Amino acid sequence: MSDLPKITVISRDGVTSTLEQSAGQATLMQLLFENDQGVEAACGGCASCATCHVYIAEEWVSRLPPREQVEDLLLTYSDHFDSGRSRLSCQISMTSELNGLVLEIAPEE
Ligand code: FES
């Protein structure tokens, strides 16, 4: 049985899917991008575009490492910023601790 983390994703259309990490997907953004979840990831993951914006389910927010300053700054400029739940998925590393994570793709900017 695989011990790679599985993530539940709610798309912009409200469709729920379960995605499992594949080899080479080091960040949450890569997992979402490669599974066609509408995450553009225009900057390639260097925290400068906010097109990988997601909302983390409330019960998971405190279980993730907090936002770094650069992530915080970019998100605050986003039209859809939610101070509690917003994250840049490119700044979240895929680890086994993410197993069961639930998130929603934020609206496009
Ligand atoms: S991919 Fe550009 S900020 Fe995350």
Word description of this protein:
The protein has 3 helices and 5 strands; from the N terminus they run ββαβααββ. The model has no long low-confidence stretch (mean pLDDT 96). The protein is α+β, with helices and mostly antiparallel strands. The protein has a single domain, classed as Beta-grasp domain (Ubiquitin-like (UB roll), Roll). Strand 1 and strand 2 (16-20) form a beta hairpin. 17% of the residues lie in helices and 19% in strands. FE2/S2 (inorganic) cluster binds at residues 29, 41-43, 45, 47-52, 88, 90.
Helix and strand topology:
Elements: E1 6-10, E2 16-20, H1 28-34, E3 53-56, H2 58-61, H3 69-76, E4 86-88, E5 102-105
Parallel strand pairs: 1-5
Antiparallel strand pairs: 1-2, 3-4, 3-5
Distance between the termini: 39 Å
Q: Report the CATH C-level class.
A: Alpha Beta
Low-confidence stretches: none
Label the CATH architecture: Roll
State the order of secondary-structure elements, H for helix, E for strand.
EEHEHHEE
Number of strands: 5
Helix/strand-derived category reads: alpha+beta
User: Ions, cofactors, ligands: which are bound?
Assistant: FE2/S2 (inorganic) cluster
CATH fold node name: Ubiquitin-like (UB roll)
Can you tell me the overall shape?
globular
Strand order of the largest sheet: 2-1-5-3-4
Strand coverage percent: 15-25%
Number of domain units:
1
- The name of the CATH superfamily reads Beta-grasp domain
Largest sheet: 5 strands, mixed
Q: Which descriptors would you attach to this protein?
A:
109 residues, alpha+beta, Ubiquitin-like (UB roll), five-stranded mixed beta sheet, 3 helices, 5 strands
